[in-house]
């Protein structure tokens, strides 16, 4: 089996040797999340330095229900001892009321490393190993979005700023390559096949202004629909929460709806359009955009989803100020505080992504479960590929 | 710790492909594809020192350019090296401008159906119609002199162009992204020209 033009075992041997050489007998902290990247990075380091490595899970308060306990259990089954450090209140205090996507990500990163600095000092370690992979730093350097684990590549010197050196054994690999590596290393299938979950977790899926009510609504909706979300054939399927959008129209929106009717070969009325209050991240022609999201209601939403590719082409042309298009699955109701958007994509390397082909019965089922929470009154399915959207919203 | 091509790889007989990336993230994917195909890819920014190589791919980037952009002058110099060149997205636009074509605002993102109009070595093993992914704000509206159109889409008459006498190609879509059908074959066909 080959990886990056090399045999996998050659890659592993070289990496282990390099870690040993770099660390040179000093102590290493591995911050693991339970995702495949940080687990493989920690495991390779553990193979290289053994007891000189301490593994920790930082409970940021933005993980999914029961996730911390389950991650600890799986990693300990692999033989790695884990300490869980709960710092959720510190994160909440720093982030409540913050609105801007990049500001949230940067505060998260700063807090994350401030805490790590404390931990590394407590443990008297010199190195931090983390599971940074290629798209993380490519997108941060390309200013698409700030990944919480990218420092060196953007000129932050962690040794000066945080008091430790960073070890990134997977920095040149893509997700599919890391998965191959994990399989070869016999890492639990549960970790390999787990849906990618961003470092800042549910924080960046509470789109726009962050507060605890939103977080709780999202966490419980996610827990209740996880089984169904996993049934969608996708690389990643998740929920994001928004303030319930307002009805909106404009000459350009009217023209766009006309185009949709042409594509669907239907006449008549029945379309409603909504503008989300929050801005969302996208990537157009290699640049980051932070712009508007449009929701459409049409009773036979299945027809829109079936023709999504053609519709998105028209959407980009007619409404250049918007980068996301979501189709309402629920009925439009005036009450309630929040809307939830279902996002499901298929991708190999996370640099580009298709919208998943979804079974409408599953969408309907997810929607009715979500609507049991009276705070949420609208549910959408996002039909925008990457580009022009990104996979996450912030 | 980064993995560069090993000395063994560098000594092998593989073709060396220079990837000139004006800042775009997909240039890393071009590098990945070139390496996966068994060639040696070398990714450089515009203006960085370059060494010997067999073919050049000019990749994408966030810039919006016009005929006076300094990137266009740089590409004019690259053309003088007389090596096979494949321009992708912005790279394609720069080649067109270097040969006095015209570009205008014309956004397209995500999947697009491409139709082959004229058979060429670069399309060997590829059907007449395939799906390619795009991400651009501008595109070519006037083909430069001495270039011919090889493929088009419903919204863009010049998705792929080729110089009549030189091994210079331009593609508006992204053959390096995973979702583009036969993208790897296009890259391979180009390097094997």
Summarize the structure.
Chain A has 394 residues and is α/β, with parallel strands linked by helices. In chain A, 41% of the residues lie in helices and 21% in strands. Chain A has 2 domains: 2-194, HUPs (Rossmann fold, 3-Layer(aba) Sandwich), CATH 3.40.50.620; 206-382, 2-Layer Sandwich (GMP Synthetase, Chain A, domain 3).
Largest sheet of chain B: 9 strands, mixed
The total number of structural domains of chain A is: 2
The CATH level-2 architecture of the largest domain in chain A is identified as 3-Layer(aba) Sandwich
Helical fraction of chain B: 10-25%
Question: Which value, in Å, is the CA radius of gyration of chain B?
Answer: 15 Å
Level of helix content of chain A? 40-55%
Shape of chain B: globular
Describe, in plain words, how this protein is organized in 3D.
- The complex is a heterodimer of chains A (394) and B (193).
- Chain A contains 14 helices and 16 strands.
- In chain A, the strands form three sheets. In chain A, strands 8, 9, 10, 11, 12, 13, 14, 15 and 16 form a nine-stranded mixed sheet that branches.
- Chain B has 193 residues and is an alpha/beta fold.
- Chain B is built from five helices and nine strands, in the order αβαββαβαβββββα.
- A nine-stranded mixed sheet of chain B has the order 2-1-3-4-9-8-7-5-6, with helices on both faces.
- In chain B, helix 3 packs across helix 4.
- The N terminus of chain B is likely disordered.
- Classes of the chains: A alpha/beta (394), B alpha/beta (193).
- Chains A and B meet through helix 1, helix 6 and helix 13 of A and helix 2, strand 5 and strand 6 of B.
């Amino acid at each position: 089996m080959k990886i990056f033009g090399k045999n996998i075992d050659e890659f592993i041997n070289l990496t282990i040797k390099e870690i040993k050489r770099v660390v040179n007998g000093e102590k290493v902290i591995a911050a693991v999340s339970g995702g495949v990247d940080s687990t493989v990075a920690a495991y390779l380091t553990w193979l290289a330095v053994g007891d000189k490595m301490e593994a920790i899970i930082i409970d940021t308060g933005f993980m999914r229900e029961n996730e911390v306990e389950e991650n600890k259990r799986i990693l300990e089954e692999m033989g790695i001892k884990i300490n869980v450090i709960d710092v959720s209140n510190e994160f909440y205090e720093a982030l409540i009321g913050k609105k801007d996507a990049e500001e949230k990500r940067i505060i998260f990163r700063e807090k994350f490393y401030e805490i790590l600095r404390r931990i590394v000092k407590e443990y008297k370690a010199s190195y931090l190993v983390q599971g940074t992979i290629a798209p993380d730093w490519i997108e941060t350097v390309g200013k698409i979005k700030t990944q919480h684990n990218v420092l060196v590549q953007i000129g932050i010197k962690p040794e000066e700023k945080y008091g430790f050196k960073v070890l990134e054994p997977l920095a040149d690999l893509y997700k599919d390559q890391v998965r191959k590596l994990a399989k070869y290393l016999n890492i639990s299938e549960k970790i390999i096949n787990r849906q990618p979950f961003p470092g800042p977790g549910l924080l960046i899926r509470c789109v726009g202004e962050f507060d605890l009510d939103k977080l709780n609504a999202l966490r419980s909706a996610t827990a209740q629909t996880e089984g169904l979300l996993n049934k969608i054939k996708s690389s990643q399927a998740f929920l994001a929460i928004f303030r319930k959008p307002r009805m909106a129209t404009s000459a350009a929106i009217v023209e766009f709806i006309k185009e949709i009717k042409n594509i669907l070969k239907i006449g008549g009325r029945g379309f409603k359009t909504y503008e989300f209050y929050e801005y969302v991240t996208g990537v157009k022609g290699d640049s980051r955009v932070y712009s508007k999201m449009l929701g459409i209601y049409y009773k036979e939403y299945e027809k829109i989803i079936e023709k999504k590719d053609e519709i998105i082409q028209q959407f980009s042309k007619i409404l250049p100020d918007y980068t996301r298009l979501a189709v309402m699955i629920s009925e439009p109701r005036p009450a309630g505080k929040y809307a939830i958007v279902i996002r499901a994509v298929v991708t190999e390397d996370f640099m580009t992504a298709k919208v998943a082909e979804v079974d409408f019965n599953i969408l309907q089922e997810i929607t009715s479960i979500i609507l049991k929470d009276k705070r949420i009154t609208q549910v959408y399915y996002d039909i925008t590929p990457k580009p022009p959207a990104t996979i996450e919203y912030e | 710790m980064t993995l560069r091509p090993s000395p063994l790889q560098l000594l092998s007989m593989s073709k060396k492909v220079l990837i000139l990336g004006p800042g775009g993230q997909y240039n890393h994917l071009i590098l990945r594809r070139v390496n996966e195909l068994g060639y040696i890819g070398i990714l450089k920014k515009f203006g960085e020192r370059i060494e010997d190589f067999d073919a050049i791919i000019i990749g994408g980037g966030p810039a919006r350019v016009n005929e006076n952009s300094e990137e266009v002058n740089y590409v004019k110099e690259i053309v003088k090296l007389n090596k096979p060149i494949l321009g992708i997205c912005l790279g394609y636009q720069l080649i067109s401008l270097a040969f006095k074509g015209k570009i205008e605002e014309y956004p397209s993102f995500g999947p697009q159906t491409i139709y082959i109009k004229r058979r060429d070595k670069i399309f060997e093993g590829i059907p007449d119609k395939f799906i390619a992914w795009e991400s651009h704000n501008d595109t070519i509206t006037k083909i430069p002199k001495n270039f011919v159109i090889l493929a088009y889409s419903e919204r863009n008459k010049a998705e792929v162009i080729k110089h009549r006498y030189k091994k210079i190609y331009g593609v508006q879509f992204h053959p390096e992204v995973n979702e583009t059908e036969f993208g790897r074959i296009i890259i391979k066909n180009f390097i094997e020209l």
